[in-house]
Amino acid sequence: MNKLLSNAFAGNPRSIGRLISLVEADTPTAKDIMKQVYPRTGKAQIIGVTGSPGAGKSTFVDRLIAQFKADNKRIGVIAID
Fold it and tell me: Which of 7, 12, 33, 63 has its CA at a distance of 20 to 30 angstroms from the CA of residue 21?
């Protein structure tokens, strides 16, 4: 678990995704993961995108991601459908 956390803190996307899955599934390690991650939170900007079907949300998000990448920003996308 410590290696997974240290890899995630180093920015490894697979490790971050694995940790998200472990917490989302409410595994026995979820509480410990949150205890380790929580002190490192608070600096992210969160953008929520909602709208009716066909409104262009995916296109908008794709372009937003491209712009953030062009600005050398680190991004993560969590989609809930």
Answer: 63
DSSP type of residue 55: S
Task: Report helix, strand or coil for 42.
Answer: coil
Collapsing DSSP to helix, strand or coil, 61 comes out as helix
Examine the pLDDT at 48 and tell me if it is beyond 90.
yes
Chain-centroid distance of CA 9 in Å reads: 12
- pTM for the structure as a whole: 0.67
Displacement of CA 34 from its chain's centroid (Å):
14
Give the C-alpha separation, 7 to 71, whole Å: 24
Q: Which of 7, 14, 65 is nearest to 37 (CA)?
A: 7
